[in-house]
Design goal:
Chloramphenicol Acetyltransferase, alpha+beta, eight-stranded mixed beta sheet, globular
Length: about 425
């Protein structure tokens, strides 16, 4: 039987090209249950979902002109979680399977190579996997709602579409913007430090509303303020300071009504230039909200989509061999990608579960990896009255998260800190 294959979506094309030996763009979503995970039942759940999620059960293949995804003939084997989150996905592993399903005590975790999907699509898979596992474990019937799909039904065509192609308006948006401050530190080659701040969601909401902001805007503004203060201490000469911008992914499904389970996210880089003066937290919240509102309209985002889609439609570019495309994409990424921001802050928002699942799930978390020139990254998810702010880094210095969480406490948001630093071998 001929194996099925699919093209990478527009956003996914860049990830194989910019992979490095020490870095692969991946993320993790996890659910912590009330009882220890049964590996055999989890394996059964993974197998049961295989026909429902054909875009997830794939491996990365190399063609003459483009990378592509090829379906698996067997489901991936679940494994016990080890080491630290988001260990490097080697090329050999990606040629076998582009996702990992793991367990550790009460936790089910799934890690995705970013060419498969984004955090929103990954969350749908995790919810459906966890629902199927709970049905096998406890015999509970969990309805397909709140992002849980019916594992028995066939995948719908709209779930597999490349929505970037569908919603591009063909008119390219010119968005030249200055490069931002680069965060630096002492590189740690064999470990990713993860610090989790556990916040009461209600207290966080109250603090955000006191500044007239959403939770995402508030957290991003606090992060921006933190980096601004830090830069001012280390660079007293104002004229030498660099713009501080926080990269915020935008879930385009909400903007266009897409149901795709593949990538459909673009990023914005709201920020300020500290050479122009000082900013209060209130001013940062207002400026960031205004920038996000102005730049995040369907029309503006369609122009950004077109800027990525249009070059792929040029016959000459399509005919260029893949090795040359890789070089070009790496150059473009270094010029237009991470250079425009200081750090990602990605918020999945409030994770809602079907009522039948709630008694079995204690927490849901989201972790994005570090990037080539972002040694620090931040990801957020809320569940069960708690908000989990995961700050990950590949450098030894913990100064950024210390300052960030301390500032939240100053603003009246209690923070309980969890860290994997104790797992680091001396």
């Amino acid at each position: 039987m001929t194996k099925q294959w699919m093209r990478l979506d527009n956003a996914a094309l860049i990830f194989p090209a910019i992979r490095r030996r020490r870095w692969a763009n991946a993320f993790r979503v996890s659910a912590t249950l009330t009882e220890a995970v049964d590996p055999a039942l989890l394996q059964q759940a993974v197998a049961d979902l295989m026909p429902r999620f054909p875009s997830m059960y794939v491996r990365l293949r190399t063609g003459v002109f483009w990378y592509y995804l090829e379906e698996l003939t067997e489901p991936p084997r679940v494994r016990e979680d080890y080491a630290y989150p988001l260990t490097l996905m080697q090329a050999r592993e990606l040629r076998s399977c582009c996702l990992r399903v793991m367990y550790f005590h009460e936790r089910i975790a799934v890690e995705f190579f970013h060419s498969l999907t984004d955090g929103n699509g990954g969350l749908v898979y995790l919810k459906t996997l966890t629902a199927r596992y709970l049905s096998l474990r406890y015999g509970v019937e969990i309805p397909p709602e709140e992002g849980v799909l019916d594992w028995r039904e066939a995948p719908r065509p709209q779930e597999l579409e490349d929505s970037f192609l569908r919603y591009s308006n063909g008119v390219t948006l010119n968005d030249h913007e200055p490069n931002a401050l680069r965060l630096k530190g002492s590189y740690e080659p064999n470990f990713l430090y993860l610090t989790t701040g556990v916040l009461p969601t209600q207290a966080l909401l109250e603090a955000a509303h006191a500044y007239g902001a959403t939770v995402t805007i508030f957290l991003a503004a606090v992060m921006e303020e933190t980096i601004l203060r830090w830069q001012a201490e280390t660079c007293p000469r104002r004229r030498s300071r660099r713009p501080v911008k926080v990269t915020i992914p935008i879930n385009l499904r909400r903007l266009y009504g897409s149901e795709t389970l593949r990538n459909f996210v673009l990023t914005l880089n709201p920020g300020v230039d500290p050479r122009m003066g000082d900013y209060s937290l209130s001013e940062l919240c207002r400026r960031m909200a205004a920038q996000m509102t102005a730049e995040g309209t369907p029309q503006q985002m369609a122009g950004r989509i077109a800027a990525n889609v249009n070059p792929q439609q040029i016959p000459l570019i399509r005919a260029v061999p893949l090795p040359i495309k890789n070089v070009v994409m790496r150059i473009i990424y270094s010029m237009r990608g991470e250079s425009k921001g200081c750090i990602n802050l990605s918020n999945l928002g409030a994770v809602r579960l079907p009522a039948a699942m709630e008694p079995y799930v204690r927490r849901v978390e989201f972790i994005i990896g570090t990037q080539r020139s972002y040694p620090n990254n931040c990801s957020v998810a809320s569940c069960g009255g708690k908000t989990y702010v995961n700050m990950i880094r590949n450098i030894r210095e913990s100064e950024l998260e210390r300052r960030f969480f301390s500032r939240l406490v100053e603003l009246g948001v209690p923070v309980t800190i969890e860290s994997n630093a104790s797992q680091m071998k001396p």
